[in-house]
Amino acid sequence: MPKTDFSHMTPHGEIKMVDVGEKPPTRRVAVAEAVVEMAPATLELLKKSALPKGNVLACAQIGGIMAAKRVSDLIPLCHPIALNFVDISFAERESPPQIHIKAEIRADNVTGVEMEAIVAAQTAAAIIYDMCKAVQRDIVITRVRLLHKSGGSRGEFNAPEWQE
Fold first, then answer.
1. Which residues contact 97 (CB under 8 A, 6 or more apart)?
2. Active site residues
3. Residues with Cβ < 8 Å from 37, sequence gap 6 or more?
4. What would the pLDDT profile of 102-149 be if each residue is shown by its tens digit?
5. Count of Cβ atoms closer than 10 Å to residue 123 Cβ
6. What sign results for the dihedral spanned by CA atoms 120, 118, 111, 20?
7. Inter-residue contact 129 to 138 (CB < 8 Å)
8. 35-152: what fold?
9. How far is C-alpha 156 from the geometric centre of its chain's CA atoms?
10. Domain segments of the chain: what residues?
11. What predicted TM-score, i.e. pTM, was given to this entire model?
12. pLDDT digits (tens, 9 = 90+) for 28-67
């Protein structure tokens, strides 16, 4: 079998966990987003905390933080990371009616925190869906992506419209 450049694969095509033991720790930061699209009436109920399951954004915030701390349990070959900081924030948009979720993760470690940010944003979005589905089933979760990453040997990445 030909030699690969995949870090999680041996030259024989077997899966392996990357040995990061020799890498020096650096400050790692990642920011990801998710967008939850809903009907105007659902957004109004969410803003008024009038949905049957209670305060949607508080629950989504806690759930996103919890998810970031459990990524190595969910993503095969992902290293467990001690996180320094997790923040889940929300921006409500009226037109079109949406909740924009931003997950920011920071750690001083030998491996990046991109997956922690992405999973945190996705989980917060899924919780919003779960808590709103009693009034609307066709909510759409979209635009889950990495916005920013810094630290490590590959340097900084910024999505084109990223603004700190």
1. 37, 38, 39, 40, 42, 43
2. 130
3. 96, 97, 98, 139, 140, 141, 142
4. 999 999 998 889 999 999 999 999 999 999 999 999 999 999 999 999
5. 24
6. positive
7. no
8. Alpha-Beta Plaits (3.30.70)
9. 18
10. 35-152
11. 0.89
12. 999 999 999 999 999 999 999 999 888 999 999 999 999 9
